[in-house]
Specification:
Length: 342
């Protein structure tokens, strides 16, 4: 028997899941569609058609149960008039237009591990391991980034890494970030729609682990105001032409071509890179101003960074530093892929 945990998102993007016991499951085609009560998730009105269908689209090992047999099933949710997430199908259509280019994505998910504290009969969000943001050492003295002993929540970040690897997610690494109890993990490289599917499932696994440690994962781009770094979801992107070049042009030529196209669509695209992202993209704390578009080699204060190795070799990838930590990965990878389409 196989325990299948169907995972989907509700009307406001929260994860929901439930378990189904099936026979032996070896691939996604063995997992049937299921349904749930949409009136309990904000996706239907009671008294009307409330059944929402969940369509399996990606399968992972279940690292919380038996990784040899049990599965996590990432699903699209189909209500009477909507699909959740709606951006996934649009991204697939974009990738179908340049399959030969094998678009690769590496996504860097930043997040704060937090908890609720009570002070003067009021509740506040605090970095995990602190009694409020005001008790944390200021980041101006650089106590947190890749530091041991200063950045709390390592046990959560480490457990997340191992569980994602056991699930079959292409994890590239983790590191402590610039803020207190702020961490980052990297997913990829993944081809096409897999990047969105794997990031979404990695977020689900992270939130589930945090629940077991009485912690809260905060994906708000700027959870703590003042002189504190926000959280991004930097997205690295390349196509076959960028990685290898062509007879008449280097890979760097195609990278610059894509960046020039992103500049033209910046005002439209920026609105799709996460809610409250404007609080993060101020031009400070390793960001570009949200109203400007810029790029550079080896820079972290620009919209786009071209790595120094990429510039020297004349081929490789570029990093879009604009997406906020709560961005919709399907929307972002579609925007990047669209910049290569004629």
């Amino acid at each position: 028997m196989t325990l299948c945990e169907y995972v989907w998102i509700d009307a406001i993007g929260n994860f929901r899941s439930k378990t189904r016991v099936l026979g032996n499951v070896s691939n996604i085609s063995d997992v049937p569609m299921w349904n749930y009560d949409g009136s309990s998730t904000g996706q239907a009105n009671c008294g009307e058609l409330t059944e929402v269908l969940i369509k399996p689209v990606a399968m992972f090992n279940d690292p919380f149960r038996c990784i040899e047999t049990d599965k996590l099933i990432w699903c699209e949710a189909h209500s009477s008039d909507k699909v959740y997430p709606p951006s996934r199908e649009d991204a697939k259509k974009s990738f179908n237009k340049n399959k030969n280019e094998e678009p690769w994505f590496g996504i860097e998910q930043e997040y704060y591990i937090t908890k609720m504290i009570e002070l003067n009969e009021q509740q506040f969000i605090s970095p995990y391991g602190c009694m409020g943001i005001h008790t944390a050492e200021p980041q101006s003295i650089h106590p947190y980034y890749c530091m041991m002993g200063k950045n709390h929540g390592r046990h959560i970040a480490e457990e997340h890494l191992i569980k994602c690897i056991n699930a079959g997610i292409k994890m590239s690494g983790i590191n402590a970030e610039v803020g207190p109890s702020q961490w980052e993990y990297q997913v990829g490289p993944c081809i096409g729609i897999d990047a969105g599917d794997q990031l979404m499932m990695s977020r689900f696994i992270l939130e589930r682990i945090a629940c077991e440690h009485d912690a809260i994962i905060n994906l708000t781009p700027k959870p703590f105001q003042g002189n504190w770094n926000g959280s991004g979801c930097h997205t690295n992107f390349s196509t076959k032409s960028m990685r290898e070049g062509k007879k008449e042009n280097t890979g760097l030529h195609f990278i610059i071509q894509s960046i020039d196209r992103l500049k033209k669509t910046h005002i439209i695209d920026i609105s799709k890179f996460g809610s409250e992202n404007e609080k993060r993209l101020t031009g400070l704390h390793e960001t570009a101003n949200i109203n400007d578009f810029s790029y550079g080699v080896g820079t972290r204060h620009t919209s786009i960074r071209i790595g120094t190795e990429t510039a020297e070799l004349g081929r490789g990838y570029f990093e879009d530093r604009r997406p906020g930590s709560n961005m919709d990965p399907y929307g972002v990878i579609k925007i990047l892929n669209d910049s290569t389409l004629d």
